[in-house]
Amino acid sequence: MATIPPGGTIGILGGGQLGRMLAMAAAQLGLATHIYCPDEELPAADVAGEVTRAAYDDEAALVRFAGSVEVVTYEFENVPAETARILSERGIVRPGPLALATAQDRVVEKNFLVSHGIATAPFADVADEAGLRSAMEAIGTPSILKTRRFGYDGKGQAKIASAADALAAYDEIGRAPAILEGFVPFEREISVIVARGLDGRTAAYDPVENIHKNHILDRTLAPAALTRALSDEACAIAARIVSELDYVGVMGVELFLLPESGSKRRLLVNEIAPRVHNSGHWTMDACAVSQFEQHIRAICGWPLGSPARHSDAVMTNLIGEEAADWARLAATPDTALHLYGKREARPGRKMGHATRLYPLGTRPPVTPS
Amino acid sequence: MATIPPGGTIGILGGGQLGRMLAMAAAQLGLATHIYCPDEELPAADVAGEVTRAAYDDEAALVRFAGSVEVVTYEFENVPAETARILSERGIVRPGPLALATAQDRVVEKNFLVSHGIATAPFADVADEAGLRSAMEAIGTPSILKTRRFGYDGKGQAKIASAADALAAYDEIGRAPAILEGFVPFEREISVIVARGLDGRTAAYDPVENIHKNHILDRTLAPAALTRALSDEACAIAARIVSELDYVGVMGVELFLLPESGSKRRLLVNEIAPRVHNSGHWTMDACAVSQFEQHIRAICGWPLGSPARHSDAVMTNLIGEEAADWARLAATPDTALHLYGKREARPGRKMGHATRLYPLGTRPPVTPS
């Protein structure tokens, strides 16, 4: 139960915007950071005390990195298992290997959820063409075929509208090990940013609603318009997941809200992300303790902060050229602008975000973006 | 009217906690920072992209520094005039030389204020022993003798209770060029954090009340309990000062609140600080745009942010060993903890601060610390 006091150094795998915002949260608490990432451009490097630019399979560099920090964390779930093993043998990695192994593979993740009584969309494992046929019989259409690993922002996915599309979809995802998920007629997408401390306590921010555009998060509405019962249920599911994984850190839990009979609704878990999450960026400006600080607190063995918010919020991602609009956004009242310092505004690239604050209880209903 | 867009680099003279928080605010806006400071330990260096550790009279280093940034600013008012001159000849320095020259010398500052019809405590220039005698005749006692330059946190000051103390006080401050100020029986100390943009617009956060301990700021209460008329007057004075100085950036304006007849009160300006100010730290957690971001916006020619606050706040400085209390503070609800990454908790050293948030209009009255 090692606690890392102010003055300690946190190692972060990955040098993107999540690493950047983690590094700033660490600095606020008097903690130093060391970024490890092979990429050429490292948004996180601007605000970190130390940077190692090396490959994730560079064992010598990993060993040096592990020796220079008190704890290692990561900004992305696809940390190679061998990288995690090398680091774990030489120091503390939080969240731990079980969370990584679970979240890296959609089949393992769904089996984990179902085995703990947490509802998901219907799914079947697809190991080969024969497996695809039996999965299609079990799940039917409409459905969606996803690679088990390395999918994000809609990549590695293909929709199947009718049985005749199945093989084409399988080809489209490169015949990789896959999962077939039944399409669920969800009404809205919800997420919960939950944290679990070293002492086992959990703290969840209120559920939020997420609106996607081109498979990329466009806006997060905080809080989601939910009954108290559904909001509590979503938080309880998230707390259950981090507890069952003996998790330490912040996790993003994505859920679907489905209509049932009449006004009744039910929740399914879509997927989990063992890291700070884009749908939690609003906490930087609407809560005393942001998801980034909460993650740093958790992995350092500090008490978790309260997830209470002082304001409602609407967070809008700035994708690609949208960030060119910075001057207008900077002049918008009650708005906190965050730019990630990336040089090239490529299409689909997350360049920044803007969070507009509203007094508690006054968040407007969603408007077209 | 050069605007510095995201991707630009800001040079900051000084590497302490104010530089650190400025660098983080710049990073949030996608701007890089370059810290210039001769000190061994540089809290700002942890979060800056580049650091030059060199003396303020190292002309070659200053020239290189000026060539590497789009604009130079500073975290302390005692930037040597020659340093400012070298940098101004090679680039943009904001706030400009007039603000520095005015704020560096208590006599120049008071004359500036009085010449613009802004009330101050009575004062007289003390150039030598004869000057001290005539100043004592003009100002009387109780009064306070202060060095014209380089005073801070009560340093370079001596109280004069009766005429017999005058020479001892003069010796105590090393017979440096001085100002004698009449002691004013103030009820409370107030400050206004005001910003002026490149376009001449001003924006002031609501006035706050400051409580000192051992001549060092202990707590800031936001907002100050003031009538609307006095609050408006304090903000108008602050806006007047930055406008008359053709100032660009954030300034801290310290005022005394004095009893008049009955419930009437009046304001005197105590001193100005041409930089972000300790009594503005609460804006980091209680406003969409903090004083640090506001300063960066101003010096980069961006639109100023709204100074509106979403929460009331009480900021408490953590001086010396008080920062050892970090774990309890981290567990206090609705509290944002800020630690500056300084290694040694020397007495009187500002190690961090904690800001407790309250819903608008519910800040409790001051309690003993």
From TrEMBL, chains A, B:
Keywords, ordered alphabetically: ATP-binding, Ligase, Lyase, Nucleotide-binding, Purine biosynthesis
UniProt: ATP binding residues: 106, 146, 151-157, 181-184, 189, 212, 270-271
SUPFAM superfamilies per record: Glutathione synthetase ATP-binding domain-like, PreATP-grasp domain, Rudiment single hybrid motif
Reactions that this protein is recorded to catalyse: 5-amino-1-(5-phospho-beta-D-ribosyl)imidazole + hydrogencarbonate + ATP = 5-carboxyamino-1-(5-phospho-D-ribosyl)imidazole + ADP + phosphate + 2 H(+)
Statement: the UniProt record of this protein carries the keyword Ubl conjugation: no
Gene3D superfamilies per record: 3.40.50.20, ATP-grasp fold, A domain, ATP-grasp fold, B domain
InterPro entries per record: ATP-grasp (IPR011761), ATP-grasp_carboxylate-amine (IPR003135), ATP_grasp_subdomain_1 (IPR013815), PreATP-grasp_dom_sf (IPR016185), PurK (IPR005875), PurK_C (IPR040686), PurT/PurK_preATP-grasp (IPR054350), Rudment_hybrid_motif (IPR011054)
Gene Ontology BP annotations: 'de novo' IMP biosynthetic process
One Pfam family linked to the record: PurK_C
EC class (word): ligase
Pathway: Purine metabolism; IMP biosynthesis via de novo pathway; 5-amino-1-(5-phospho-D-ribosyl)imidazole-4-carboxylate from 5-amino-1-(5-phospho-D-ribosyl)imidazole (N5-CAIR route): step 1/2
Gene Ontology molecular function: 5-(carboxyamino)imidazole ribonucleotide synthase activity; ATP binding; metal ion binding; phosphoribosylaminoimidazole carboxylase activity
The enzyme's E.C. designation: 6.3.4.18
Family: Belongs to the PurK/PurT family.
Subunit structure as annotated in this protein's UniProt entry: Homodimer.
Protein name: N5-carboxyaminoimidazole ribonucleotide synthase
Organism for this UniProt entry: Parvibaculum lavamentivorans (strain DS-1 / DSM 13023 / NCIMB 13966)
Record gene name: purK
